[in-house]
Specification:
globular; 2 domains; mainly alpha
Amino acid sequence: MKWLWIVMAFFSGAVLPIQAGLNSKMGKGVGNPVYAALISFIVGAIGLTLYILFTKQQVSWTGISRMPAYVWTGGLLGAFYVTAIVVLFPQLGPALTFGLVVAGQMLISVLLEHFNILTHQPNPFNWWRLLGILMIVGGVIIVRKF
């Protein structure tokens, strides 16, 4: 069953450049990348609302009230990410933009796991993980150069 999660993770990564291209076109159309990001979030919120209504999803209001304040910054980070991608995509192109995104994700993910921050299980840093990050960075350099 883990293969299904792996396919889902791959697919969600695969749709990011498509979303970036669409949002970039939206940014050019409305003349402002921040408005394009806002429109993207509004459309996404409508889609999620409809999904919740049709599937009768449940929520723990008690759980929401007990969350630490820093958890709410996730929405701000999402807004930053979408806006940055709308700005960067036309400047760098899809390959370099998402190569750098993946490199940044890997580096921070390894650090979060090493220090057991926002994770369920620590995974200590080792030379193999460093090699993986360096290979991704090397791939970004190759994509940029050629």
